[in-house]
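Aim 2, interim progress: modelling of the adenosine-5'-triphosphate-bound target.
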Amino acid sequence: MKKVGVFGGTFSPPHNGHVEAAKAFIDELDLNSLIVMPTNIPPHKTVKDNDPIARYNMACLAFSDIPKTEVSNYEISRCEKSYTAKTLSYLKKEDISLFFLCGTDMFLTLKDWYRPDIICALSTIVLTRRNSECDAEIMREKALLCEKYSASVIILKHEPLDISSTIVRQTIKAKGDISTLVPEKVREYIYSHRLYENG
Ligand code: ATP
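Predicted structure of the complex, ligand included:
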């Protein structure tokens, strides 16, 4: 069986926290390949500057140099809301085991997503922590997903970087320096396209 990782997100913009989590995902799970999936109109959140093409282009710049990794336009090229259950159904093949990466915020809401039963049946859920404060909540959620949906959950050992897209956008708006927050090519794309100047 080939081990294929899936890393979905808004990526508005992609940042070094995403990139390091993706690398740890590949290494710790010994993945054969990783698919980064920028989402279309996410059901869970309102997105500032929701330009799917810009987010896709920035994801290519951020992730494409990571070995075994490709960025997919599957979700953003479809004119409908993105649902992970549908995307995983599309990616699942007989000879492929899917591993679905999510950060703590996503993991804690997973049970409320569209068809969590399908998500848990088609993939192993891989959690990358974003801080250590939610550990009790994470364990409760893990137990719930295991009991209700027979989920398999793996928690990465990776120490996350304390970066979010929100912080990147706020820093740009405040005319601060984002060079330690995002990959250099993403920084250049943001400034040449004048993204996020208004927040
Ligand atoms: P925003 O600040 O706009 O909410 P975000 O930084 O959470 O954005 P997303 O594109 O929403 O970025 O995140 C995509 C996935 O990456 C989610 O599963 C999220 O939990 C995870 N993630 C985001 N930032 C980090 C980080 N620093 N370390 C590990 N995982 C992260």
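Helices lie at 16-29, 52-63, 84-91, 104-107, 116-122, 135-149, 165-173, 184-192. The longest helix spans residues 135-149.
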